[in-house]
């Protein structure tokens, strides 16, 4: 276990969108999957993919040769179910990159298809990949689009791209309903789960600092209990179990409906190795797991509401968006991919500096070229202030020199610019960027997640008493990027949340 808590690596930072005083938080709620428990993404998604594929093969689809491609999709992409495309959009909903099936769309095709389209996630046409659990679904859908275009899928009536997506979704849901994949994971958790002994310690810190701990998961009790036992109990002190760590445990919560509607609450009763349900009324009992219920009921039990509660989860909509929008809880998004992203950005820093320097030089050349063109235009049409020197021939010659310099500069800049778009993933690039702009995912994070980080155990380094300050918001006219001291300072990082001793209490 790490003992030097003063200097965690930069990728383990807590990044703050809105100032958050953790001392003022009285309860911390957690999702389980990909939040308290992290899976080996490729192993889990490959098996989920194979279950979907095998179900389709059993239905007579000729897809037994398809294999999972872990690089084909990333979180934050959008499926256009009407056109059979995988899209990456910027914060304004403008499409910046597109695949039709698994094939990149040309610039011209992408412009023709999406130049007048602004993505609005309220429309059923768009499916946002909210979580890492979406990768297998997106991968097989894209591959099946290729088969559909080639006329290789069964059916006497023509199948559209939306019909195809519904088939994928139906078979994915059936895979989870059958429970075979989860049974496989319970039987061999070492194969699928990334052990993180620091997570239980971080939660012990919070509990002993006086915060109520809540587990609110969509997973059923038969899966939650063995997985939490595997991930937590061996790292807890003195024979303590994970059930003793949490003040409230709610399984099969049906998020996001848990946060928006009211539903009956049941007590999970274990009889002879089986979990039975008994309808519950009255106060919640410590150490007892519950099924269903609602956030309103939970708030009433806790005697807390709004910004007294922090909820931590990995699902952009079901965990973060709804809790912020409906309940005004404070929110934390877990983004495990952030660690690779921060490392990739750091590794690219020297090239990025060179790229920035050469782009500044290009802008100076372009500015001079524009002025020369304007001067030639004014002389041609005989208006505006005039000068006799240099001659028109000299202006034309200098314009030619600048054009040649710019062409040479573009040849130098091209490989560096392409490399910048391929960081982390050669197809989609960085999770949080779409070209030079923020990605649609980054905009969602900025709007709904008060803080974001790569894993729950990062709270260990900040302590339960941290005061996280957001950096000053940036605008194009600002003289320099805003900032301050990162919550985990280091010589080669910037931005992120900022940490103060006692301000704001």
Question: Would you give an account of this structure?
Answer:
The protein has 505 residues and is α/β, with parallel strands linked by helices. The protein is built from 17 helices and 22 strands. It has helices spanning 41-58, 107-114, 135-149, 161-178, 180-187, 189-192, 198-208, 221-232, 242-245, 257-260, 295-302, 316-327, 338-347, 349-381, 392-421, 440-448, 459-462, and strands at 14-16, 20-21, 27-30, 38-39, 78-80, 85-89, 95-100, 103-104, 126-128, 193-194, 212-216, 248-251, 265-271, 274-279, 289-292, 309-313, 330-334, 433-434, 437-438, 451-453, 467-469, 498-499. A 10-stranded mixed sheet has the order 1-20-17-16-3-11-12-15-13-14, with helices on both faces. The protein has a 5-stranded antiparallel sheet with strand order 8-7-6-5-9. The radius of gyration is 27 Å and the shape is globular. Mean pLDDT is 90; it is low at 481-505.
Write the layout of secondary structure elements.
Elements: E1 14-16, E2 20-21, E3 27-30, E4 38-39, H1 41-58, E5 78-80, E6 85-89, E7 95-100, E8 103-104, H2 107-114, E9 126-128, H3 135-149, H4 161-178, H5 180-187, H6 189-192, E10 193-194, H7 198-208, E11 212-216, H8 221-232, H9 242-245, E12 248-251, H10 257-260, E13 265-271, E14 274-279, E15 289-292, H11 295-302, E16 309-313, H12 316-327, E17 330-334, H13 338-347, H14 349-381, H15 392-421, E18 433-434, E19 437-438, H16 440-448, E20 451-453, H17 459-462, E21 467-469, E22 498-499
Parallel strand pairs: 3-11, 3-16, 11-12, 12-15, 16-17, 17-20
Antiparallel strand pairs: 1-20, 2-21, 4-10, 5-6, 5-9, 6-7, 7-8, 13-14, 13-15, 18-19, 21-22
